[in-house]
C-alpha cells in the first residue's frame, strides 16, 4: 500500500517506533471518540501493539472529553459532511498505525443510518477472535484478583475476631485467678464468684466420680482374689494323702501282737559258753 508515490514502511528504530506508536495510537483513539460523538456513529477500535498489548475503544451514549462535553452536530447536512471527513481520516490513521508501527488494527464504524465501514490490518475475524480471547483472559484475571482480595479481607476479619476472643478469654482467665480484679465492679465480682463456685462444684463432682470408680475397681479386684484363694484351697485339699492311722483302728491290739512276736527265749547257763548250732 502506498501513499501517493511514497511507500510507507515500518519504523525500524525501537525508540522512534515506540514514540510513533504512542502518538498515533492516542490520535486514533481520540478521533474515534470524536467521530462517535459528533456524528452519532457507532465506532469500535481494536489495536494490538507489536508486543501484543491490547488498546480498545467502543462508543457509548455518555462520553466527555476533559471538562468540555462534546455534542452531536444537529444539522443533518453538516453532520453528514463531518462524518464523511472524519471517517476517512480515521480509516487513514488506522492504516498508517498498522504500517508504521507493525500494529494489528481493526476499525468498525456504523453510520447514523446503519451503514458499515471497516478496516482491518489483517483478517478481521482473526483480530476479533484475538480480542475476545485477550479481553476474556483479562476479565478472568480481574475476577480472580477481586476474589483473592475478598478472600484476604475475610481472612483478616476472621483473624481480628479470633484475636479479640483470645484477648477476652485471657482477661477472663486472669480475673478467675484473682488477677486484674481491681477495676471490676461489684456486679462483675459477683459474676466471677458465681463462676468459681460453679467450677468448684464441677471439680468436686468429678472427684467423687473418680473415687467411686476407684472403689468399685478395688472391690472387683478383692472379689476376684477371694475367688482365686478359694479355688486354691479346694485344690490343695483334694490333693492331700490319707493318714497312716485311720480313726477307729485298734492300736493297742496291734502293738501287743508286735510285742509278742518280738519276744525271744533266754536260758541261764553256768560255765564256758558252748557253741550252739543254729539248727539244733
Characterization of the model:
This protein is of the alpha+beta class and 280 residues long. The chain is built from five helices and six strands; from the N terminus they run ββαββαββααα. It has helices spanning 14-38, 76-100, 124-176, 186-238, 251-261; strands at residues 2-3, 6-7, 42-48, 54-58, 104-110, 116-120. It has a four-stranded antiparallel beta sheet, sandwiched between helices. Helix 1 (14-38) packs antiparallel against helix 2. The protein is elongated and about 135 Å long. The relative contact order is 0.06. The model is unreliable at 1-5, 62-67 and 257-264 (pLDDT under 50).
Q: Taking all residues together, what is the mean pLDDT?
A: 79
Query: Low-confidence runs (pLDDT<50, min 5 residues)?
Result: 1-5, 62-67, 257-264
Oligomer: single chain
N→C terminal distance: 174 Å
* Helix-strand category: alpha+beta
Number of helices: 5
Shape: elongated
Largest sheet: 4 strands, antiparallel
How many β-strands, per DSSP? 6
Gyration radius (Cα, Å) is 60 Å
- Proportion in β-strands: 5-15%
* Helical content (DSSP H or I, runs of 4+): 55-70%
Record the strand order, biggest sheet.
Answer: 4-3-5-6
Strand and helix order: EEHEEHEEHHH
InterPro entries: MADS-box/MEF2_TF (IPR050142), MEF2-like_N (IPR033896), TF_Kbox (IPR002487), TF_MADSbox (IPR002100), TF_MADSbox_sf (IPR036879)
Biased composition (Polar residues): 249-259
Domain MADS-box: 1-61, 63-123
Subcellular location: Nucleus
Amino acid at each position: 500500500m502506498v501513499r501517493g508515490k511514497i511507500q510507507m514502511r515500518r519504523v525500524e528504530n525501537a525508540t522512534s517506533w515506540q514514540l510513533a506508536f504512542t502518538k498515533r495510537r492516542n490520535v486514533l483513539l481520540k478521533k474515534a471518540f470524536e467521530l462517535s460523538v459528533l456524528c452519532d456513529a457507532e465506532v469500535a477500535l481494536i489495536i494490538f501493539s507489536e508486543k501484543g498489548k491490547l488498546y480498545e475503544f467502543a462508543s457509548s451514549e455518555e462520553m466527555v472529553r476533559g471538562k468540555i462535553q462534546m455534542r452531536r452536530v444537529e444539522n443533518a447536512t453538516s453532520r453528514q459532511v463531518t462524518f464523511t471527513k472524519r471517517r476517512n481520516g480515521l480509516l487513514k490513521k488506522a492504516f498508517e498505525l498498522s504500517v508504521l508501527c507493525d500494529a494489528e488494527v481493526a476499525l468498525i464504524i456504523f453510520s447514523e443510518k446503519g451503514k458499515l465501514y471497516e478496516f482491518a490490518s489483517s483478517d478481521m475475524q482473526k483480530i476479533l477472535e484475538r480480542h475476545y480471547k485477550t479481553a476474556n483472559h483479562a476479565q478472568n484475571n480481574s475476577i480472580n484478583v477481586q476474589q483473592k482480595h475478598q478472600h484476604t479481607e475475610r481472612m483478616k476479619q476472621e483473624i481480628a475476631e479470633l484475636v479479640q476472643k483470645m484477648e477476652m478469654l485471657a482477661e477472663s482467665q486472669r480475673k478467675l485467678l484473682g488477677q486484674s480484679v481491681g477495676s471490676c465492679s461489684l456486679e462483675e465480682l459477683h459474676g466471677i464468684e458465681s463462676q468459681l463456685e460453679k467450677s468448684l462444684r464441677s471439680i468436686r463432682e468429678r472427684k467423687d466420680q473418680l473415687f467411686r470408680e476407684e472403689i468399685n475397681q478395688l472391690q472387683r479386684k478383692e472379689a476376684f482374689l477371694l475367688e482365686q484363694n478359694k479355688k486354691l484351697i479346694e485344690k490343695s485339699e483334694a490333693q492331700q494323702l490319707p493318714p497312716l492311722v485311720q480313726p477307729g483302728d485298734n492300736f493297742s491290739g496291734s502293738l501287743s501282737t508286735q510285742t509278742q512276736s518280738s519276744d525271744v527265749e533266754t536260758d541261764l547257763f553256768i560255765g564256758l559258753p558252748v557253741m550252739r548250732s543254729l539248727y539244733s
